[in-house]
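Troubleshooting: if your tokenizer reports a length mismatch, compare your output against this known-good record of 342 residues.
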Amino acid sequence: MINKIWKQNEPYVIAEVSQNHDGSLGQAHAFIDAVATTGADAIKFQTHFADEESTQYEQFRVKFSYEDSTRYDYWKRMEFTEQQWIGLFKHANSVGLDFLSSPFSNKAFLMLDRMGVCAWKFGAGEVFNDELLGKAIQTKKPILFSTGLCTYDDIDRIVEKIRKNGNHFLMFQCVTAYPSTPDSIDISLIHQLKEKYNCSVGISDHSSTIYPSLAAVTLGASAIEVHVTMSPYMFGPDVKASVTIDQLKQIVEGSKFISKMLATKIDLSKRTKEKEDLKTLFSKSLFANDTYAAGTLIERGMFSSKKPNIGIDASLLPTIIGKSLKKDLKTNEPLRWEDIET
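Known-good structure output:
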């Protein structure tokens, strides 16, 4: 299903759970079932192993946890075993979802590779991890990466590495702010990145609304990634930057609706029989205001514009002033071309 990105039909929608499961395996599985009801294409997690990526010296940027003394303790609580990850992988596939998870260490990468993930996603901070990015590229699998902390020089370097190996890839226009505000989201970058790199571009949004995703589809985004939560009242640092399950469903439905609109081409120089019938029904023609005898000269005020358009079009009244009637007309009878001297 990941190949849908490069078929340019409908946007590929990724529901990013991140840490919104709060370390609960049951919640992680519940997210899979909930996301499957929305029509999204993929569910994405983050695979953390505290000992591989953090230390007890890593403090919180903003202290949010009621039970974790350090950031390391938080990552430790977010861990699942390999067998638990395999269970999540199989569950997602069983309900028709692609399973994605961002690796944050070599251990996480190797485990996800053994599981057989269909693509690699690197977040805004991890795109600078040359070791992991290089290993991911060597697997020949598609590479998805966020540009939230990148300059054009950074993107140039990443794209060059990927293209040398021939992987499919997609870059996400991304704002690394949680939640993102409207004045921080430069949606025009989608077009700029597509033009500059001649590649598929998506949006990775953290606004907790549906608006950037739908706007991005209108501008040609090939993929949408949004953080998702069961409820805005759930606990966790990513919840405030997440959409709800119902909002995710709106994004999926809206992106499909917009895609169909963008694919529709209408030739206004032609009208179908159906449209001609509608024009007859909704536009107006001239109808007699009174009874008139044959030979009467047509003057203003003798006819009114009324539906349906089964006679002389109302807009043509000025062209028939002064002409004479060839037949008697009754009140509310339509005036036709054959009824006047031409």
